[in-house]
Amino acid sequence: MARKSTVAASTPTSQPALSGVGADATQRSVPPMRLSYLIGQLDRVISRRLAEALVLHGLTLPQYTALSVLRARGRSSNAQIAERSFITPQSANEVVKTMEASGWVAREPDPMNRRVVLLSLTDAGKTLLDACDEAVDQVERAMLDDVAPTTAQTLQTLLHTCVRNLRAI
Predict the structure, then answer these.
(1) Angle at 49 between CA 45 and CA 55, to 5 degrees
(2) Residue 13 falls within a domain, yes or no?
(3) What distance in Å separates the CA atoms of residue 138 and residue 31, rounded to the nearest whole number?
(4) Is residue 149 part of a domain?
(5) The domain containing residue 48 runs over which residues?
(6) Hey, which of 53, 117, 155, 158 has its CA 20 to 30 A from 147?
(7) Strands 113-121, 76-77: parallel, antiparallel or unpaired by DSSP?
(8) Interatomic CA distance for residues 98 and 11, integer angstroms
(9) Whole-angstrom Cα distance, residue 49 to residue 43?
(10) Is the pLDDT confidence value at 19 over 50?
(11) Which residues pair with 77 in a beta bridge?
(12) Using one digit for the tens of pLDDT, what is the confidence trace for 47-68?
């Protein structure tokens, strides 16, 4: 219960009545937007802004995510990239084909399992990823423009906790 009251207390509890109604109209109490809805809105807006920033570098958001996964995790299989990039294995196959054809990733057999192919970043992939990181940093700075650094750090910690809690279900 304490969690719900904390969220509700920090969210406006009333909004103007229907648009088009005069300024002197009575405002009705409206429940706050659900947190899951706000997170969904943020996901859609940030995905759109990131896609717009990345296209200038010739990269899609799924490609950037996959390249970022490879940088963070090192060599990974196609299945691991799919899971960690939040895309289907079929989509990951297409993303990987394009990245390999562009020279951003290289394939090599897994020494532990001949049936598995591991992907790794090439120097060209690392260079591209570094260039794209600045564009992503700009989007994130814009998102957090009026947020104090300590609040931004708290937000990041809370989001990590939310992800961990839902994965544990």
Answers:
(1) 145
(2) no
(3) 33
(4) yes
(5) 35-167
(6) 53
(7) antiparallel
(8) 44
(9) 10
(10) no
(11) 118
(12) 999 999 999 999 999 999 999 9
The pLDDT score that the predictor gives to residue 26 is 55
CA dihedral 89, 94, 95, 101 (to 10 degrees): 140
pLDDT: which is higher, 50 or 10:
50
The structural domain count of the chain equals: 1
Distance CA(69)–CA(57), nearest Å, equals: 18
- Closest CA relative to residue 6, chosen from 158, 163, 165, 156: 158
pLDDT at 1 (0 to 100): 39
Would you tell me the crossing angle of helices 89-101 and 61-73 to the nearest 10 degrees?
90
With contact defined as beta carbons under 8 Å apart, do 119 and 75 qualify? yes
* Residue 19 backbone dihedrals phi, psi, to 5 degrees: -65, 150
Q: Output the CA–CA distances (angstroms, integers) from residue 59 to 10, 18, 23, in the order listed.
A: 38, 42, 47
Q: Is 117 a domain residue?
A: yes
Q: At CB < 8 A and 24+ separation, what contacts does 136-139 make? A: 136/50, 136/53, 136/54, 136/64, 138/53, 139/46, 139/49, 139/50, 139/53
Per DSSP, the residues of 89-121 read HHHHHHHHHHHHHTTSEEEEEETTEEEEEEEEE
Q: Is residue 90 situated within a structural domain?
A: yes
Write down the H helix ranges in 10-116. 35-55, 61-73, 78-85, 89-101
Neighbouring CB atoms inside 10 A of 34's CB total 11
Query: Which token pair is 63?
Result: 């490609």
